[in-house]
Structures are given as C-alpha cells and as structure tokens.
Amino acid sequence: MKMSSLEDLFIHELKDLYSAENQIIKALPKMEKNATSPELKKAFQEHLEKTRGHVQRLEQIFERLEGTPKGKKCKAVEGLVEEGKEIMGEDLEPPVLDAALIAAAQKVEHYEMAAYGCVRTWARQLGQNEAARLLQQTLDEEAEADKTLTQIAESSVNVQATGMSEE
What we know:
Number of domains: 1
CATH class: Mainly Alpha
Shape: elongated
Helix content: over 70%
Low-confidence stretches: none
Number of helices: 5
C-alpha cells in the first residue's frame, strides 16, 4: 500500500496496533499461567480485560473511518511475544521467571505507548477528535499497566529474585 498522506500513515499504524493488541490477547493468558506471583497473575488478568477494550476502541475508530482494521501484522509485537515465549521455556527459578515476565510485558507496553502516542497526535492533526480521545484513553491505560508492573517488580518480584542469587 502506497502511503501518500498522513491519513494513510494513520490508518496503516492503526492496523498495526489492531494486530498488536490481538497478539497480546493471545499471549497474556500464557504469561499469567507461567507467572508465580499472585499479584503478577492478577495484573496480567486485568490487563487482558483492558486489552480487549483496546481492540473494541480500535474497531470503533475504524467504523468511523469506514474501513477495516485487518490486513496488517505487527512484526514488532510478534517479535516481543516470541521473546516472551523463549523466556518462559527457560529453566528459571520462579521469582526470576516473574522478573523476566515483567520485563517482557514492559517491552510490549513501551512499544504500545510509543505507537499510541503517535497515532493520537496524528488523529488530532487530522481533526479526528473522537479517535484522538479514544486513543488517549488507551494510552493512559497502557501507561497505568506499565506503572503497575514497575510497582510489582520493585515491591516484591525483584526483591525475591535478588534473594535467589544469594543462595
């Protein structure tokens, strides 16, 4: 697809995010299953529900644009999910695995925050105020998820993982 305008790029990136969110929906249950920290398991469960909402918001935006969100594969998230799968296949002590899962999840969150920030800005530039509002809502939720993961890491998981190296 030739992109000759900011609107073309906007739609292209929205499709990328739609693919990313759907890949994340498939990955989160596996991450939750592998997590050992109850707090981390809960965070993954809650973010799964939020992610389903992100997909719905993107579908809303595409309805307004009279287009389809399908047709693009987010290779960045595909790679990050693959990294997460690899780490879950390693022989790690439970607290170390939890620390690795948090790191994997935060890599995805940071990608999403960058992407949502860009498309939100483009939506504003294009006069797509409702899309900008919906994208900002998702961006806020992604930032909150990142903050929650940092809190879990710093308050318990990393502390426990640090103790593993002293044994």
